[in-house]
Amino acid sequence: MRFRHLGRSGLKISEITYGNWITHGSQVENDTAAACVRAALDAGITTFDTADVYANTKAEEVLGDALAGERRESLEIFTKVYFPTGPKGHNDTGLSRKHIMESINGSLRRLGTDYVDLYQAHRFDYATPLEETMQAFADVVRSGKAHYIGVSEWTAEQLRSGHALARELGISLVSSQPQYSMVWRVIEEEVVPTSAELGISQIVFSPVAQGVLTGKYLPGQPAPEGSRAADTQGGATMIGGLLGKEELLRRVQDLRPVAEELNLTMAQLAVAWVLQNDNVAAALIGASRPEQVAENVAASGVEIPEEMLTRIDQILGETVVRDPRITDDVSPKERLC
């Protein structure tokens, strides 16, 4: 396992980071989830990412239980705040001071730790003044409940404004967590250059595009049994839009010779691809089976030759989504409850 600095900070994280977005507390049993976390630890992963909203707080509990007994100082634990949790009352969402202060306490309790290494704004909150949000984050850091601050799916302009306020308040905004993969590159034009300028790293999710880049989904054929697209507890909903793109699925199959030439599986190729970007500190992987962790971790340290990167671009062609304006549509413009 290789490690990279998170932004312009002194914190190093494992370049393959384990995330439990749509598996723990919902799609897999707790003993399987614990086995996946154990596989991650055995493979050298030290960084774990979750959020209070995942499985309506249950994912944090599962991760906390799975990491119990590990040396806390040897781990980097990340979580997030923004989306509705609990009974989803009128203040149970967003980035108000009230919600942030109550949410960090709940997250720490569920995770079984006194602090998180990174506390992230899960989306941009248009209903709360950014000054209020950043002041609350500063107080969370000064209280010792978080070491660093990050965001998820913020635009370049939002990153710049948040970073400026963080500097005024004397705290470190060091990371951005966007979706990023061979076929989803909306951050490349604006978010990545801005982040590089400001000393912010990307921790990218969905590097295998919900499983599409594994090549398991064949054009014109039903989803394989046991795959995410066959899951009725949320997985099928998440991946549905991609599976309807027949041309994309065909072109993904054309990536197989590239993976074979590099002696990689399709999943390893996808994970290694995002790590070629210098602004990416880590690729977030999830797993429903321990063996998936071992496969993805093998992408750590892989260097893809420039000619292969060009070939990948040529194969995927116009199926790649690049419009940077999409990021602005990710954060809800109004409160969710």
UniProtKB/TrEMBL annotation:
Ranges of residues in domain NADP-dependent oxidoreductase: 15-315
The record, for InterPro entries, names: AKR, K_chnl_volt-dep_bsu_KCNAB-rel, NAD(P)_OxRdtase_dom_sf, NADP_OxRdtase_dom
Query: What do the Gene Ontology cellular component annotations say?
Result: cytosol
Matching SUPFAM superfamilies, A to Z? NAD(P)-linked oxidoreductase
Give the top-rank taxon of the lineage listed in the UniProt record for this protein: Bacteria
Query: Keywords for this entry?
Result: NADP, Oxidoreductase
Name of the protein in its database record: Predicted oxidoreductase
The source organism is Ruania alba
